[in-house]
Amino acid sequence: MSIQTTKRAKLIARLHEIKALEFGDFTLKSGMKSPFYLDLRKVVSYPDLLKSICEELYELSEDIAYDHLCGVPYAALGFAAGMAVMYEKPMLLKRKERKSYGTKKMIEGVYAPGDICLVVEDTLTSGMSLIETNTQLRKSGLVVEHALVIIDREQGGREVLEGDDCSLHALFTITEAMDSLFQQGLVTAEMREDVLNFVRANKVVANTADTEALKAKPNLRLSYGERIALCQNPVSKRLLRIAESKQSNLIASADVATLDELLKLADEVGPHICALKTHVDILDRFTPADGQRLRSLADKHDFLLFEDRKFGDIGNTLRLQVRGGQLGIDKWADFVTTHVVGGAASVEALNEAAPNLGLVLIAQMSTKDTLTDENYTTAAMKIATNYPKVVMGVVAQKRRLDDPASLQFTPGVNLDVKGDGKGQVYNTPSIAFNEKGADFIIVGRGIYKADSPLAAAIKYKEEGWLAYSSTLSVLA
Ligand code: 5BU
User: Fold this and answer.
1) Do 28 and 142 fall within a single domain?
2) Roughly how many angstroms between the first and final C-alpha of the chain, as a whole number?
3) How far is the C-alpha of 332 from the C-alpha of 350, rounded, in Å?
């Protein structure tokens, strides 16, 4: 056994000894029964152990360049502070309470925009609290690309973090911890199996090992979290991560006439949406600098920017349109719509010109006499699935491809009216999810024309989430 292995084995044995890792019959906060209980907060009472863990975490981070350390409050504060003192690394403190939109800072400490922050967490389950910390740090101008955790419970958090562009470095996975305890004679084979079966059966999101199994069950309606692992497009992963953490599948379509109205609406409904859809060519004024103002709001409230540009031209023109012009779409948008009337070549051309933009193909329109017939829609959806790294999915009114890695965006959603007298056909969120196969609903006038856009956004968010939740299959 190498020195390295011995050190790690001792560490896990000591965690077991102080009952930071306990086995038995536990009832979790959710009411669920668990055969083990993990509480690394106890470690602060054992300086020797705290020190060894900090040493190990530091070794794990040796190849990562960073300016600051930040522990996810509260459990990981001791570890981040320990590393900061032992290795003379500056630390930042993230406040736990939500900002009440005053001047109260969420991040304490001295830093400059663009500084790199390494995040430290004790245990990783769903990854949601880590993501909340990452989001706050990023909103404050810091760059977050890596996270250190002591124990990864292997319940899918790694994939959730991937969707947040954050690489995970774990000291132990729960499998490694259980194997080591078993080899040291500290747990029985049966106990090890119980724990591992429990974590496998209680995935928060699917992990990579489940990918093939999930693909083999195409008719299952998977959760946003589960689909993060299946999607190859990085913007899709981000969108799914936001949907899961904000419990919102609502995309507000901000078809207002002026830039001021757009910015106001974005700030108002921002906390309740996963993306803001724009048509910036209808605004009274817009430059790429205004795109950056939108970007700041998107970062502040954690939503993506979806420019509904509906490209549809030959490759050379597409390239000029996406990169040039007065709008500078590729400088600020996260994803865009494109018609595929020009064939797969248009997808390739757009991707070549703007490789970081997610593409959503218009497979079917919501108007009553649309020309997107069955053949066209099927062909468009085929192109979508042929380019999984580049294409996020389709705009459509009916799901025809059961590929959980491909997202369906459904406009034409309104709770109050059936049409607009100009061809638009409306359905409710419930019909969009239950009958049309939507993954994300797009609501325009239902929100920005409402007396209170904020109240309307909350209503559509709640209806959308309820409708989506009712269509979920439980991951076996
Ligand atoms: P509404 O106000 O909720 O009707 O706005 C719907 C938005 O979705 C609007 O910006 C349209 O341009 C967009 N849309 C649509 O309604 N139907 C389609 O088939 C496509 C886009 Br593609």
Assistant:
1) yes
2) 37
3) 15
Cβ–ligand 1 distance for 424 under 6 Å, the answer yes
* CA atoms of 476 and 467, how far apart (whole Å): 21
pLDDT at 35: 92
Q: Tell me which of 253, 422, 441 to substitute to probe ligand 1's pocket, judged by most ligand atoms within 8 Å of the beta carbon.
A: 253
Q: What are the pLDDT digits (tens) for 100-121?
A: 555 567 899 999 999 999 999 9
The DSSP output letter for 395 is E
Closest CA to ligand 1's atom 1: 444
Q: pTM of the full predicted structure?
A: 0.69
**pLDDT band with cut points at 50, 70 and 90 for residue 214:** very low
Instruction: Give the Å distance between the CA of 432 and the centre of ligand 1.
Output: 14
Whether residue 211 lies inside any domain: the answer is no
The gap from C-alpha 199 to its chain's centroid, in whole angstroms, comes to 22
Give residue 76's domain range. Answer: 3-204
The pLDDT value given to residue 121: 96
SS3 assignment, position 421: coil
296 Cβ contact partners less than 8 Å away, ≥ 6 residues apart: none
